[in-house]
Specification:
The complex is a heterodimer of chains A (312) and B (655). Chain A is built from 11 helices and 1 strand, in the order ααβααααααααα. By secondary structure, chain A is mostly helical. In chain A, helix 1 (2-31) runs parallel beside helix 10 (254-281), helix 5 (121-152) runs antiparallel to helix 7 and helix 5 runs parallel beside helix 11. Chain A is globular. Chain B is mainly α and 655 residues long. Chain B folds into 3 domains: 1-187, no CATH class; 267-529, no CATH class; 585-655, no CATH class. Chain B has helices at 2-22, 32-54, 76-103, 106-128, 132-151, 157-182, 191-198, 203-221, 230-233, 239-264, 270-292, 297-324, 328-363, 374-377, 379-393, 399-413, 420-452, 459-462, 469-487, 490-503, 516-537, 562-572, 574-577, 606-627, 634-654; strands at 58-61, 71-74, 541-544, 580-586, 596-602. The chains are: A mainly alpha (312), B mainly alpha (655). Chains A and B meet through strand 1, helix 3, helix 4, helix 5 and helix 9 of A and helix 15, helix 16, helix 17, helix 21 and strand 3 of B. Strand 1 of chain A pairs parallel with strand 3 (541-544) of chain B.
Chain lengths: 312, 655
């Protein structure tokens, strides 16, 4: 039963991820006084791309076609780490935060290689910038998760979530506050959102993620787009599960699950709204300011870890 | 039975150089040295495996025949490092059996086959010795034989200078190691005696032993700032020798430190651990940062050895801190991580250097800016190189991840300790390790992306062909090991746990250490099924030209280069590099279009500028002053003798 619930959670994450994407762009359009496309548009896009043929540069090797699949597979595995409605996950017990961070690194490493296989300047440019951002994001990501793990005294993501659920919301510690802000900053960099990267940019010279996928088309591009939607949703649900898990079902009854679904929907809506507002009101950072941005995240994460020891 | 196998392994290894010399005129026996060497290494691997997994012990004692303190004894720690040496050398020699005849002829080839087994044997001697004499004998020979192997590739002025620096630093390091052994006198006839006497030593003496061992073995391991020789000596050796030096020889230094710090001294105060941790963190960060700035493949790989030794030292340091705080369980976790990373690094770094050998064999250059598109031309070499890149970066499903994961977990465990400084410093070290991992990922995305992907940047790279079958087989064996350990870490972890439990009294490898082995195979299976499934369902591809902004003819030179790729990171970490740049512009007519521009950027590391240069200058100044004593005038020398005599007489009178 629990296993089935865990599988359903992963499926939900994977299937609803494009919808989250659609809602964000729709909201952004409304804030910017545009009509915007339907929230179901990402599904139509994916379907269209899957039906198209795969165009591969003549000079590219097998890595070019392998990269999107590895990216997608690794992102799917990460999706199995995060509790959604119920305080456990498919890989909840054995999957710890280090594995989570490094699975995302695996996905990114292959995407960078795929970008460089195209043989154009843009791919290399995107990969080079992605290398900069991801390198500097890895340490705060890991440290912030570690500070939460230290407080919860467990390394598994699901374990941390269960521990937080047992706590009183109003006894929220400084460690959690610091780790939360650090993780939000890292999440923005990891998922390539404004102000680190602009996912809707059309100017090759300012792109990071989009420059990497410039050569991709058809099913390969669909996998990449889907994976990046899943990644965004996973990171958002990770933030919710780690810091505000209250409302999640503690038993597997239908009522509890229904309540948990509604609560999750509200939390996601709040997060999506915040994202849309921020993305519409903040300008993208100059690339060499991104290290400062991530430097703030690193400092907060370091403080969070130091506080875990001081506040015992 | 296994004892006999161990003896025959040693005898055959010794016989290979003799056989090489005897059979050198006999063209039919050209493959004989390689075959003999591989055979004995195979036996050595089997023997070491029996020692490591089943805990069998072997001894060879010369004292039974002649009164001479020279003995070998293989306990589980020695067996582990023996296994590392033999099992990694075997594929390297297989690679060499084809690589050496292709690149070296006549006397140079014979010398390689004479020196290679001797070099391997000296490393075997170091890790199996049970008397200080045998250890130091092997230690010195290891340096000399490796220097000889480097010399085979030529002896230009520059190379001789590099080898001079290598030998100089090695001897300084060896002096420290000898000093560490001498401090055990008069109880230094064998290791068992030293272990017993260490418990009775006064603390200052123990600290002196530790510091000497730390400096001596640190020089060999190449920790910053004692790493200066490493990026000079490793890249100029023949590629298989580079593989052995970086992959295997550096580990003998780790063995030495583990033997001293854990086996002899049984741990010490916390600051020993913090010192090792600091050395590890600094080496790891600076090693990988210097590597990012390189575009010569072998120099880049050499700097990555500094980085990985840093990661190993992070584990060792944590283990020492845990031991000092009476947490043997977590110490076992950290020590297991460090030892496993030794094995993993030996495998993937050898593979990377063999890959560099294959590249230079096929494309005749190791300059990344001249490579590109090799994956299509050398599909097997490329795939194995990719596996090695994933391993060294520490990506899940490859072996590097397992040891880094264990290191992370031991850092996390430190938060449970009551000692406040340990509970703060060790978890923060995880951040350093994560940064090192991120930088390594950037560096190897650059290496693999520039060398193997995209389009060839030179005619040589464009006409490269796949290397010979033995070379592929050698690399294939190492690549397989990377993946097998990466997916089934339990194969090595359990016995490593037993080893650390023997080394650290009261230790028990925590069950969390093996939790990874239960999840990795499933993830691997899932990824495999998904890749196969999607690959089967994906629509047929069709080839197109790369997007060139609508312009015709995308040039190979328009690709991102290695230098361009690393520019953002070099800019962010510009404090580390501090390049000396010279720009010369010859103005033309009109002045907006210069006739020529020459740009030169030389990087001298701050260590050379601020640490080594002043001390070398000081030594030279003192030497020049002292030269004034040597006038060459015989009367002056008689005066010296007379003065010395008077001084001695006075000393005898009053002392």
């Amino acid at each position: 039963m629990t296993l089935a619930m865990n599988a359903v959670q992963v499926l939900l994450l994977v299937l609803l991820a494009p919808l989250v994407h659609g809602v964000i762009s729709r909201l952004k359009a409304r804030i910017q006084n545009r009509r915007g496309a339907s929230v179901w548009r990402p599904y139509a896009d994916l379907l269209k791309l899957f039906r198209k043929e795969d165009l591969v540069p003549a000079s590219a090797s097998f890595v070019f076609r392998l990269a999107p699949i590895v990216l997608f597979a690794a992102t799917l595995v990460v999706a199995a780490f995060v509790p959604l409605l119920y305080g456990s996950a498919l890989l909840g017990a054995t999957g710890d935060f280090v594995l989570l961070v490094y699975l995302l690194a695996l996905a990114r490493f292959f995407l960078m290689l795929g970008a460089m296989d195209g043989g154009s300047s843009f791919g290399g440019m995107g990969a080079s910038r992605e290398a900069l951002v991801s390198t500097l994001a890895e340490a705060p990501f890991l440290l912030a998760l570690m500070s939460v793990a230290i407080v919860a005294r467990t390394a598994s993501i699901a374990g941390m979530v269960q521990w937080t659920m047992g706590q009183n919301f109003f006894q929220f510690s400084a460690v959690h506050a610091l780790a939360f802000v650090a993780l939000v900053l890292v999440a923005i960099a990891e998922t390539g959102r404004i102000p680190v990267d602009n996912p809707t940019t059309h100017l090759e010279l300012t792109m990071i993620h989009e420059a990497m996928v410039l050569e991709y088309s058809g099913p390969s591009l669909a996998l990449i787009e889907w994976a990046s939607a899943i990644k965004l949703t996973v990171v958002m649900t990770l933030l919710i599960a780690l810091f505000v898990p209250w409302g999640m079902a503690s038993s597997l009854s239908a009522v509890a699950i229904a309540i948990a679904s509604i609560v999750l929907l509200l939390k996601m809506a709040a997060l999506v709204l915040a994202l849309a507002v921020v993305e519409s009101s903040v300008a993208k950072l100059r690339m060499y300011l991104v290290p400062d941005f991530l430097g703030v995240a690193s400092a907060l994460a370091i403080l969070a870890v130091v506080f875990t020891a001081l506040m015992r | 039975m296994t004892q006999m196998a161990f003896n025959s392994f040693l005898v055959v290894m010794l016989a290979v150089p003799v056989v090489t010399l005897i059979s050198r005129q006999w063209t039919k026996a050209r493959a004989l040295p390689a075959v003999l060497l591989m055979g004995s290494l195979g036996v050595g691997t089997a023997v070491a495996a029996a020692g490591f997994w089943r805990g069998q012990r072997f001894t060879v004692d010369v004292a039974q025949v002649a009164s001479f303190s020279f003995a070998l004894s293989v306990d589980r720690l020695s067996a582990f490092f023996l296994l590392l040496i033999c099992s990694v050398s075997l594929p390297v020699i297989l690679f060499s059996s084809s690589y050496i005849p292709r690149h070296y002829a006549g006397a140079r080839r014979h010398w390689l086959w004479v020196l290679l087994p001797l070099f391997l044997l000296s490393m075997v001697l170091v890790v199996t010795a049970s008397t200080p004499f045998a250890f130091l004998f092997g230690w010195e020979l290891m340096t000399l034989f490796s220097a000889g192997l480097i010399l085979i590739d030529g002896d230009s002025e520059q190379r001789r200078h590099n080898i001079f620096i290598y030998l100089l630093m090695m001897h300084a390091g060896a002096a420290a190691v000898i000093g560490a052994f001498l401090l055990f006198l008069p109880h230094a006839s064998n290791f068992a005696q030293m272990r017993a006497s260490a418990t009775l030593m006064p603390p200052p003496l123990r600290t002196a032993v530790f510091l000497l061992a730390f400096a001596g073995f640190g020089t060999k391991a190449g920790i910053v700032p004692l790493h200066l020789w490493l990026p000079r000596a490793h890249p100029i050796a023949p590629s298989p020798v580079s593989a052995l030096m970086s992959g295997v020889m550096l580990k003998t230094a780790v063995y030495g430190l583990v033997r001293f710090a854990f086996n002899f001294l049984g741990g010490g105060p916390s600051w020993w651990g913090y010192l090792v941790l600091l050395a590890g963190g600094v080496s790891g960060l600076l090693g990988v940062l210097y590597a990012i700035g390189e575009h010569d493949l072998k120099r880049l790989l050499a700097y990555h050895s500094v980085e990985n030794i840093g990661i190993i030292y992070l584990g060792l340091g944590a283990a020492l801190v845990f031991t000092a705080n009476h947490a043997p369980v977590w110490a076992a976790l950290a020590l297991t991580a460090a030892l496993l990373h030794c094995l993993n690094h030996a495998i993937f770094k050898s593979l990377l250097f063999l890959g560099a050998g294959a590249i230079s064999d096929a494309a005749h250059t190791l300059d990344l800016e001249e490579l590109g598109g090799l994956q299509k031309r050398m599909p097997l070499t490329g795939t194995m190189f990719l596996i090695a890149c994933c391993s060294i970066v520490g990506l899940p499903l490859f072996n590097g991840f397992v040891s880094e994961w264990l290191t992370f977990r031991s850092f996390l465990a430190a938060s449970e300790m009551t000692n406040l400084s340990a509970a703060i410093v060790l978890p923060l070290a995880a951040g350093v390790l994560a940064l090192i991992g991120g930088l390594a990922a950037a560096c190897f995305a650059k290496v693999y992306g520039v060398a193997f992907l995209g389009r060839p940047r030179s005619r040589e790279a464009g006409s490269a062909n796949e290397v010979s079958l033995p070379m592929q087989a050698g690399m294939g064996a190492l690549a397989t090991a990377c993946v097998v350990i990466g997916i089934f870490p339990g194969l090595v972890l359990r016995s490593l746990g037993t080893l650390t439990e023997e080394l650290l009294p009261g230790a028990l490898l925590p069950p969390a250490a093996t939790s990874l082995s239960s999840v990795l195979p499933w993830i691997a299976l899932f990824v495999l099924v998904l890749v196969a499934g999607i690959a089967a369902f994906k629509r047929a591809k069709s080839l197109t030209a790369t997007w060139a902004c609508g312009l015709p003819g995308l040039d190979d030179r328009m690709q991102y280069t290695s230098t361009a790729f690393s520019k953002p990171l070099r800019k962010v970490f510009s404090q580390v590099y501090k390049a000396d740049r010279t720009l010369e512009v010859v103005p033309g007519d009109p002045p907006y279009f210069p006739a020529s521009i020459s740009y030169r950027s030389v990087r001298t590391t701050s260590f050379e500028k601020f640490l080594y240069r002043p001390s070398v200058d000081a030594i030279v100044t003192v030497a020049l002053r002292l030269r004034q004593l040597q006038t060459g005038n015989i009367q002056i020398y008689l005066l010296y003798i007379f003065a010395a005599l008077i001084a001695l007489l006075m000393f005898m009178r009053w002392a």
